[in-house]
Design goal:
By secondary structure, this protein is an alpha+beta fold. Helix content is about 30%, strand content about 30%. Strands 1-8-2-3-4-7 form a six-stranded antiparallel sheet. The protein is elongated.
């Protein structure tokens, strides 16, 4: 008795489907991003730099009480530095599915003693490489699916006279 290919059980050694590979690549691309934060070790970052300020426990407790949620660091645009303070423009809002939505903007001033570490946002070559590699692999998979190279091995295709 012949069983059609569509209902035959798959073998355990079957290769992953193009859809599964595509989903994995999309996940890698989405999670990698092109930017990362690096500590500022040589003085202050220049104004208008995108920064993350890691706050001391006292400053974290104060701003958390005001915001109604736990806040250990703030990210924003550095507006001004003085010998005893840092002024940052912060965008507050919800993050949905990895996309930030701006709710409000505040200009916050922190004493130097309230800031444990200053990190500057920079482009990451490694993360950018993952994004480019993931996009290139996704493009290859899409191209293979259109040219017929994306099907499962061993599945007979239509013959020269067979209808699609």
């Amino acid at each position: 008795m012949l069983i059609p290919d569509s209902i035959q059980p798959k073998s355990a050694s079957a290769s992953p489907s193009p859809r599964g590979i595509g989903l994995a690549l999309a996940l890698v691309v989405a999670l990698s991003g092109c930017f990362g934060y690096v500590p500022v070790l040589d003085g202050d970052p220049e104004p208008d730099a995108n920064v993350r300020l890691r706050l001391s426990s006292q400053a974290s407790a104060e701003i958390s009480a005001q915001a109604g949620q736990s806040i250990r660091s703030v990210e924003g645009t550095l507006l001004q530095t003085t010998p005893d303070s840092l002024v940052v423009d912060v965008h507050w809002g919800a993050i949905y599915a990895g996309t930030p939505f701006e709710g409000r903007r505040d200009t916050l001033s922190f004493a130097r003693s309230d800031v444990v570490e200053v990190d500057r946002r920079e482009i990451s070559r490694l993360r950018t490489g993952f994004v480019v590699g993931g996009l290139a692999a996704a493009a290859v998979l899409i191209l293979r699916s259109f040219t017929g190279g994306g099907g499962e091995s061993g599945t007979p295709g239509p013959g020269p006279g067979d209808p699609l």
